[in-house]
């Protein structure tokens, strides 16, 4: 069910009997015959039985998509007043968190922090389907990339490869999903050397606005709020992420 007021019959009720009142007080019926008449008039078609599995898909305007520990929950807290569990380990978020951005004209935008995706999520690795289904109904995608994964001797995934992996997973899960209006958030811009990584990402990725932020310190968050609003206003003219415009070594 995807529309307000939509109705669906999942179990058809049975046809009710006429009941004792329909027999009246016929004195000519013996006790045995009366019982047979009651059974005949009371028995009708039974109702149907159904076994249902209900799957809830979060409804949000913006979906924050990223690898585990990219800082999505911290970013959502910075964008809104949502109070979330935040920790320095993967899969802290195991279900979508929803925050609300309210603009000066009272427009309210719902933002969902989607649990971290990993390679193979479309094949249901790492609870992939349980996470990916919550992105289906978002209007705008915000790719949250971690700038610090290769800094200070870390052997993580460079941001442009993070982006490529996310786009591949979303597109494998649902063709056309990555054509939705999108922007990129490069998180942890405060770390030493992060600016150079950010500039390299801008060189490697074309056609999508990129916003550098430090979610922890709320640096760059006001500009990001404006960028999200611009995408919401232009949602009828999608500008998604084109895999062919991501340069990876």
From TrEMBL:
GO BP annotations, alphabetical order: ribosome biogenesis
Database matches in InterPro entries: G_OBG, GTP-bd, GTP-bd_Obg/CgtA, GTP1_OBG_dom, GTP1_OBG_dom_sf, OBG_GTPase, P-loop_NTPase
Cellular component annotations (GO), alphabetically ordered: mitochondrion
Cited SUPFAM superfamilies: P-loop containing nucleoside triphosphate hydrolases (SSF52540)
The UniProt record lists the keyword GTP-binding: yes
Keywords for this protein: GTP-binding, Nucleotide-binding
A GO term for molecular function: GTP binding
Domain spans labelled Obg: 1-59
OBG-type G domain location: 60-233
UniProt KW GTP-binding keyword: yes
Pfam families: MMR_HSR1 (PF01926)
Family: Belongs to the TRAFAC class OBG-HflX-like GTPase superfamily. OBG GTPase family.
Protein name (database record): OBG-type G domain-containing protein
Organism of this sequence: Aegilops tauschii subsp. strangulata
Taxonomic path: Eukaryota, Viridiplantae, Streptophyta, Embryophyta, Tracheophyta
């Amino acid at each position: 069910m995807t529309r307000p007021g939509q109705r669906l019959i999942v179990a058809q009720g049975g046809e009710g009997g006429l009941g004792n009142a329909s027999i009246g007080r016929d004195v000519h019926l013996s006790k045995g015959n009366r019982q047979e008449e009651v059974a005949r008039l009371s028995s009708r078609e039974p109702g149907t039985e159904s076994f249902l599995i209900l799957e809830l898909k979060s409804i949000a305007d913006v979906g924050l998509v990223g690898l585990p520990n990219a800082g999505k929950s911290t970013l959502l807290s910075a964008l809104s007043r949502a109070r979330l569990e935040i920790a320095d380990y993967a899969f802290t978020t195991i279900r979508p968190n929803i925050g609300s951005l309210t603009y000066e004209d009272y427009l309210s935008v719902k933002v969902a922090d989607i649990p971290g995706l990993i390679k193979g999520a479309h094949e249901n690795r790492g609870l992939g389907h349980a996470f990916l289904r919550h992105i289906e109904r978002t209007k705008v995608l915000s790719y949250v990339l971690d700038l610090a994964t290769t800094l200070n001797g870390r052997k993580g995934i460079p941001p442009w490869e993070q982006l490529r992996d996310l786009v591949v997973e979303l597109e494998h899960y649902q063709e056309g999903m990555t054509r939705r209006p999108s922007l990129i958030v490069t998180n942890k811009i405060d770390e030493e050397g992060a600016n150079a990584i950010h500039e390299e990402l801008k060189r490697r990725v074309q056609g999508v606005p990129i916003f550098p932020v430090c979610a922890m310190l709320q640096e760059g968050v006001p500009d990001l709020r404006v960028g999200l609003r611009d995408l919401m206003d232009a949602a009828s003219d999608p500008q998604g992420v084109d895999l062919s415009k991501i340069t990876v070594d």
